[in-house]
Write a structure and sequence with these properties.
Strand order of the largest sheet: 2-1-3-4-5
Strand content: 5-15%
Shape: elongated
Largest sheet: 5 strands, mixed
Structural class: alpha+beta
Radius of gyration: 23 Å
Number of domains: 2
CATH architecture of the largest domain: 3-Layer(aba) Sandwich
Length: 262
């Protein structure tokens, strides 16, 4: 029997290591080699990984590169370029799907979730989480798309989603593709208008997260200027979650059959 080619053996090693220990067990170059083994001849995967890291510096920068930037490396055909350009969107869909059933307890949780979904996407979009009374995510997904730094907040679509999932509380988020997470004047004014429209339908806007090149920011935390008209449900939302968690912890620590009253 002919011996296995070195490139095939290398690909098998990377697949087994990933299957046994996960992606973090691989170096950045090995992660790219594993991916490239499915996009091009295996004997070109290692050299192509070196070329990509030399040009883009990080795996994240590579995954969020434009099709034109990918083609400039020279190791990608049209099919491979298309697949790589789809990966950030596939990641966004996976994170939003996995969020269903989880509890968003505070603005930190919200910022972390939406940052995972929106960071690095090349187009601007508005996303929404519809929550249950216990703040479990019943739906998480994209509501609308917009041009760079000009996403439109569609109250009708948000109200329709909230009613569909029987949700009385929502969290929204959008991304700035070319700037920081500092909300624009348009972001603030649009959120004020959205708050009022949702409230008329009995829906509470808990928070609005903005994701930018510097990370994610909650509008509850944004203190520059007078936003007294921007009535979000964030403080009451977080206080209620903390009280519920405290009661739950107290119930666990009490002996069986004991009364809640002292």
């Amino acid at each position: 029997m002919a011996s296995e080619k070195p490139s095939a053996a290398r690909a098998g090693f990377l697949r087994n290591r990933y299957a046994e220990k996960g992606l973090d067990a691989l170096t950045k170059k090995e992660q790219l080699e594993l991916l490239f083994g499915y996009l091009m001849p295996k004997d070109k995967a290692s050299a192509s990984a070196d070329d990509v890291l030399e040009k883009f510096g990080t795996v994240s920068a590579f995954l969020h590169a434009s099709p034109a930037e990918l083609k400039s490396v020279g190791c990608f055909n049209d099919q491979a370029t298309l697949l790589v350009s789809l990966l950030p969107y596939i990641h966004c869909l996976a994170v939003s799907s996995n969020a269903v059933g989880t509890v968003i307890s505070n603005r930190v949780d919200a910022c972390g979730l939406f940052h995972q979904m929106l960071a690095g996407l090349p187009d601007e979009r508005l996303m929404c989480c519809c929550l249950s009374k216990s703040y479990k995510v019943k739906y998480c997904g994209t509501v609308s798309f917009g041009e760079t730094d000009a996403v439109r907040f569609k109250s009708e679509a948000l109200i329709e989603l909230a009613e569909k999932y029987r949700s009385k509380a929502v969290i929204i988020a959008h991304n700035h593709t070319l700037s920081t997470s500092v909300p624009s004047v348009e972001d603030i004014e649009s959120t004020k208008t959205l708050c009022r429209k949702l409230a008329r339908s009995g829906i509470l806007l808990l928070d609005h997260i903005v994701v930018g090149l510097d990370g994610a920011r909650s509008l509850i935390d944004y203190e520059s200027g007078d936003y007294s008209e921007l009535i979000l449900g964030g403080s009451a939302w977080e206080d209620r979650v903390r009280r519920k968690e405290k009661r739950s912890q107290q119930a666990k620590t009490k002996p069986d059959g004991s009364s809640d009253r002292e």
